[in-house]
Amino acid sequence: MPQSLDLALVAALIGDPARASMLSRLLEGPARTAGELAAEARISPQTASGHLAKLLEGQLVRVEVQGRHRYYRLAHPNVARALEALQLLAPTRLIPSRVPEPLRFARTCYDHLAGTLGVALAEALEHRGLLESGEDSYVLTPAGTRFVSSWGVDVEALSQGRRAFARRCLDWSERRAHVGGALGAAMTERLFVLRWIARRPEGRGVRLTVEGRRGFDQQLGLTWP
């Protein structure tokens, strides 16, 4: 019963339209001020402060003070993962109007690559026999281990960590899986280092670079207009 009550309290915090709007904004990008979140939710700053106080109390957000400014961000990676999972319950017909095309094409799902590019990467690895799909996880084949190692990914270190090695993370805009877990995060980090992808100036959007177009084409047969 206490667990059910805890779940109900969290659901109530997220379920309010104004708070859901603010959490969605924080999911998309960097820390925001109360004023910016109020504008996003189309409510007054006073009302936003009340909502943020509830989110702080519920440990869904945290606040950082820099001088006279207070910046809010999601409290923990698990909050981001929960919000991503809830996005999957949204009706499919609403997605095209809700997701800007650059964000739909490529973004970070907290710390791993998502969107059209992330899904295409996962499927290309599968089609080439580098990755095998299970019910809710992936397994690297020997050839896959050699392949990601060539990118600079330390597979042995990842397999010994506490984090799930390779999750099948259902992409909420594509409704197909991309690679999550420790492997997804490590591959994404290496793609940034290799300059195949780059962060957009604001939010969690990702753009494909000239080097990335060439690399994905040559190594995985992925081409983009």
What does this structure look like?
By secondary structure, this protein is α+β, with helices and mostly antiparallel strands. The chain is built from twelve helices and eleven strands. The chain folds into two domains: 2-76, Arc Repressor Mutant, subunit A, CATH 1.10.10; 88-220, no CATH class. A three-stranded antiparallel β-sheet has the order 1-3-2. A two-stranded antiparallel ribbon has the order 4-5. A hairpin with a 2-residue loop joins β4 (107-109) and β5 (112-114). α2 crosses α3. The radius of gyration is 19 Å and the shape is elongated. The mean pLDDT is 87.
Q: How many domains comprise the coordinates? A: 2
The rounded distance between the terminal residues' Cα atoms is 54 Å
Q: What structural class results from the helix and strand content?
A: alpha+beta
Secondary-structure element sequence?
A: HHEHHEEHHHEEHEEHHEEHEEH
Strand content: 15-25%
Give the averaged pLDDT, no decimals. 87
What Rg do the Cα atoms give? 19 Å
Main sheet? 3 strands, antiparallel
Shape: elongated
Unreliable residue runs: none
Number of strands: 11
The amount of helix comes to: 40-55%
Q: What is the overall number of helices?
A: 12
What is the spatial order of strands in the main beta sheet? 1-3-2
Q: Secondary structure elements and their pairing?
A:
Elements: H1 2-15, H2 17-28, E1 32-33, H3 34-41, H4 45-57, E2 61-66, E3 69-74, H5 77-87, H6 95-98, H7 101-105, E4 107-109, E5 112-114, H8 115-127, E6 131-133, E7 138-140, H9 142-150, H10 155-159, E8 168-170, E9 177-179, H11 181-193, E10 197-199, E11 206-208, H12 210-220
Antiparallel strand pairs: 1-3, 2-3, 4-5, 6-7, 8-9, 10-11
Helix pairs in contact: 2-3, 3-4
